[in-house]
Amino acid sequence: MPSSRVALKLVPLAWVLVLSWGPFAHALPSASTPEPQSPEPVPEPREAYACTFEVAPAEVLLRVVDVRGQPIPGARVAQGPATSWGPPRFSEDGPVTDARGEARLALRPGPDLRASVDVMAEGYAPMRASLGVAAGEQRRMDVKLWKPVSISGRVLDARGRPLPGAKVWGSKGHDHGVSAESDAKGRFTVTGIPEGWVTLSVTLSGQFIAQTRVVAPRRDVELRGAFSALDVQVLDAQGQPLPDVPVNIETVPATGFLAPVMKTDVKGRAEQAVLPVTRVRATAFWNRESFGWQTSGEVSLVAGKRHSLVLSFEGSSLRPPLTGRVVDTAGRPIAGADVMATPLAHRDPGIVRDSPESPAQFERSQTRSDAQGRFTLKDLRAGAVRVRAWHRYTLFQDVPPVQVAPGQDEVTVVLERQRAVEGRVVDPEGRPVSNFQVNDRSFSDAQGQFYDVPVPEGRTTLTFWAEGFAAELRVVDVPAGKRGRLREPIVLQRGRRVSGRVVKEDGCTPIAGAVVSLDHADAPESGVRDFVSTLTDADGRFQLGSLGEEPLFLRVAKREASIFSSALIPLVRVPVGAEEDAVTVRFTPEVSLTGVVKDNQGRPMGEAWLHADCALFPIPLDAAGRFAMHGLDGGQPCSLQVSTDDDAGPPLHFFSPRQVMLPARGTLRVELSARSGPASLKVQVPRMDMWLGLLEGEVPMPETWKQYKALRGVLRTDPCEDCRALQRHDKPGEYTFSQLPLGRYTLLVGALRPGLDGMAFVRVPVNLTAPGQTRVEVSATELRHVLELPRRPPTPPETPPSGGCGT
């Protein structure tokens, strides 16, 4: 079993974002904390059950068919490996399909009740299909195999001339992709492509230029791409060619770089032969040891035309070196401070410092202060600049930049020290504890000393942790502008360990990956103090150390939180006595959800996915449209949405969301059918980086993203070709909702910023009164309060709704 040091680990970030509470989020040991000499066994929980840990296999009746639904006899089947990337494990005496294409296979599900099946037949591409399966279950599953075929044709430009060197990708869904390169006459042949509808995408020099859908096999495909070329020349301050200078090209407005960074040749030139037909900005970065200058220019590209652009630093003059000192509020020098200056017309140095992009991509001069706090910034261009200093350790508060006028050659930057606390840590006998942690800072000191631990203004709680001791909490109050020292040493008491298992209702079946955290009686119901946390292993076992000799509570979550799932996470709170060292945690009954998905003609359909907010993962349908989800928590609502493969080809099917109530126990069977209606809705929005949600009925305006998600029931738009062309986000977007019954709907439009809690929406009532297409245009004026919201980094705690068609 793992050692207590290994078992004590911080729950991953996704869990912390959702469930962490208070000042304890950073009080786990650092990687430098020494390991115990030998692992200790996890004791058995005192509450014992007569458990049989042999998991009964599930029996699956497989039917293997081709793309036309005809049985494939002689196909070999086997259970896939635990990891999706592992090799297949066929055996010579393993199951083989009979004349009806059927074979029986015993599967042993993993802890997450998921398994995979490998299928291989001569003349067909091998297939690995995943499914949810419960121990002892008997079920049917159809698997579809396809024959590798080829697609050939030519790649041409907008004028019909051949394009050599273009890469043609053929793909079906997210599982298959092969490529080929066009020859001197633009000809290509993609082999090993699946039968049926596939998507062909063309790139040239790394740039997307064309995309279409065809039925494989085929020999006469013409792929036409519209693109332009740009030649950039960079000149230095004297107007001479500037070699070896990086040049980036991006769209206007900026949506990301369009090509890998180029460098100018000995003549100061750089060429990008394939660019999308749009307005672009080219930026050159002249980087040296102590400075970086930049200059840029814009041009609107025309299809089939080669454009030229000159980027010049000509006429730029240097200002004298800018010298100065970095000191604290008492005038004492600060050594090792980073100092950066940027022109007033460019970004604040603090923004450059915190940018995920390289500082070399911004115009700046940078250095570090010496032992006397002195610094010199060289090679700044003439003009006013901003100067900002900061320290790589969190010992000083962030201060606004200092503006330096032309002609001013000396500047002093004053940094205010953070409030900090220092003190000493000892064991119950008064001996120093040499390796310990205070909040998120680790210390290794023979005298047990700690220092420069930043604290906020007012009262705060410090967390002390050391291997073999109980975590200690101490409330401190450091006056403004002072460094506080704890008069009495922090005494760490010997810690104890609590071990146990997390199991299902039967008291035997383990729950792997459950999150076990130390809780307290005063913790809020919605929070977890996670400074002592661990995950259960494959047998559902856990061990927590550094616990005090007192009654406590454990908070146990059935699984980790994930930004990719909105499913609720069941939690239980377990009391543990002062002398109790082993517990068993049992969860409530689990239920299953099974069913079939049909098209709008009532025929079962595969090549689709079922998304459920009560499940962790999307569920793939088998070739007969069947699905099964096990291990769900009963008695709660579950919203279901079917998404079809964009590469499935016509006819396209669209589904209305369905909300069901799971039973307290047992199995619920549902049937989902594609919607059928005579109307469609085409929506025009001013930008491509928007998302749309169409809901049936009259829905009130949500005020936050959370309220929007609570509405559920978002209808999906038709597959959108333009959504894939990232370089076209600056152009307006058109989205279509098809197969709609007549009636009232609510259209919601917003900007794609799911991390912004104060999400603003535009609500458009829609009434479809007759068959045919209804058009709705949402103008930039209507969306002004949405588009003007402050942007935030794209790291949302929740995923956008499936109904949105924005990227």
Automatic annotation (TrEMBL):
InterPro entries: Carb-bd-like_fold (IPR013784), CarboxyPept-like_regulatory (IPR008969). Keywords: Signal. It comes from Pyxidicoccus parkwayensis. It comes from the Bacteria. This is Carboxypeptidase regulatory-like domain-containing protein. Residues 347-369 are annotated as: Disordered. Residues 347-356 have a biased composition (Basic and acidic residues). SUPFAM superfamilies: Carboxypeptidase regulatory domain-like, Starch-binding domain-like. The keyword Signal applies.
